[in-house]
Amino acid sequence: MLISLILGCIAGSANLIGGLILVHRRWDGRALRYFISLGAGFMMSVALLDMMPASMHFSEKWAPLLILAGYCVIHLMEHTLTPHFHLGEETHTQEFIHTRTGISVLLGLSAHAFFDGVAIASGFVISNWLGWLIFFAILLHKIPVGFTVASVMLASGRTRRAAVFAAFALFVATVAGVLIIDLLPHWVFGGLPLSAGVAIYVAASDLIPEINQEHGIGMALVFFLGVALFILLRSLATA
Asked: Which of 48, 76, 119, 212 has its CA 20 to 30 A from that of 58?
């Protein structure tokens, strides 16, 4: 419980760091996409090769439905209830989106962050190894998400203080997700497959389209590096 809570705080802090980076300096979008690409490969591997099999171990009947539900919930939040914004997009140069839009994007990303916390804690309920893998996969995309929420808040005409507060809200949502599973560990039976569906959505529908904006083979190779890194770590752990 203590380890998952500490790592949840670290992961949530990466959201805050992303927000602080945005309000203090311009960040090269290509550099961010390298982190996103590595995280996409690693996260997809963790979701498909560890989180899904562990979920199926609990219930072969309900796990697939819950995985699909996790995918659909985030799809609903990001594409139905809120507009879609690219991770790390430089939208803060002028006010051009409605104030309510900034709030709706914050709510959607907070739900995403909440499931990040659920995933980390659920992994540690199963095993320390799975918990560390999930934590690392989530950490790799946390800074760009914090960058995004702060960017959207500034674009909606809010202050830099409000932008940092929005990134802090993602920190709180992440820790809340960890605490839910730490305090109610039996919820892992639903939390892990739901989080697996969220992880698949984030990797396949959010992160990969973002890296596909870059031309050339470099980003693809970094994605495969993320996959290879997961396989290497898994091989070393089971050797």
From this structure: 76
